[in-house]
Specification:
Blueprint (H helix, E strand, L loop, with lengths): L9 E5 L3 H13 L3 E5 L2 H11 L3 E5 L7 H9 L6 E6 L3 H9 L4 E5 L3 H16 L6 E4 L2 E4 L4 E4 L2 E2 L4 H11 L5 E3 H9 L8 H15 L9 E4 L3 E4 L4
Parallel strand pairs: 1-2, 1-3, 3-4, 4-5
Antiparallel strand pairs: 6-7, 7-8, 8-9, 10-12, 11-12
Helix pairs in contact: 2-3, 6-7, 6-8
Keywords: Cytoplasm, DNA-binding, Phosphoprotein, Transcription, Transcription regulation, Two-component regulatory system
GO cellular component, one term: protein-DNA complex
Main location: cytoplasm
Length: about 230
């Protein structure tokens, strides 16, 4: 991650609502981020190409083109973290955006505290993208080289599929992983909503082995109707 003037990361806001852009700009600048703005999709794509932001906040409802099209266009040449802003009831938009390459989403109306937390997680994930051989999440330790998992100093026995699922979630800690993404990365091939019961079963297995109270998980959080998020234990 590049550090720019003001001491923070460079963030591009693509949103057609002036009030939202002003709120984001004032708040994020107060947290020492370097802010750039665009009020439409084409302008946002152009800004992304010349500004080279460290992170993009993208509204899916834009006047000139779909926010999904902006996401796809940017993903053709950049892996910059993208957090999308979505309408509250549009669950399918959240899934499509995550499957299309977004790193996270925040639902409108949103609290700035929540958005700031999402931004920090996304930037931290990029900063630590050089994969460490050992991942540590409080009492949980995952040794990627040895394929070993320990909890509170004791070895946790996992099946190969359980380990692959845990590894996929943990290496994307803080990010929402959709059901389709997890099915493709862990089981491979093409999977559909009808296959999601496999995922629920294995998530249940992991929670029984890792969580003190599987009904109140501290590691694997359910994003209802969308997928799962591995909590980064900050």
């Amino acid at each position: 991650m590049t550090i720019h003037s003001g001491g923070g990361a460079r963030i591009l806001i693509i949103d057609d609502e002036p009030q939202i852009r002003k709120l984001l700009k004032v708040t994020l600048q107060a947290h020492r981020f370097d802010i750039h703005e665009a009020e439409a999709g084409e302008a946002g794509i152009y800004q992304a190409s010349i500004v080279h932001p460290d992170l993009i906040v993208l509204d899916l409802g834009l006047p000139d083109m779909s926010g999904m099209d902006v996401l796809r266009r940017i993903r053709e040449w950049s892996s910059v973290p993208i957090i999308v802003l979505t309408a509250k009831e549009r669950e399918e938009d959240k899934i499509a955006a995550l499957d299309g390459g977004a790193d996270d989403y925040v639902t409108k109306p949103f609290g700035m505290g929540e958005l700031l937390a999402r931004i920090r997680v996304a930037l931290r994930h990029v900063a630590s993208s050089v994969q460490e051989p050992v991942l540590r999440f409080g009492p949980l330790v995952i040794d990627l080289a040895q394929r070993l998992v320990e909890l509170d100093g004791s070895r946790v026995k996992l099946t190969p599929t359980e380990y692959d699922l845990l590894k996929t979630l943990a290496t994307n800690a803080g990010k929402v992983m959709t059901q389709r993404q997890l099915l493709q990365q862990v089981w491979g091939g093409h999977h559909y909503e009808s296959d999601s019961h496999y995922l629920r079963i294995y998530i249940g297995h992991l929670r029984k082995k890792l969580e003190e109270d599987p009904t109140r998980p501290r590691f694997i959080e359910t994003e209802p109707g969308i997928g799962y998020r591995f909590l980064s234990q900050d």
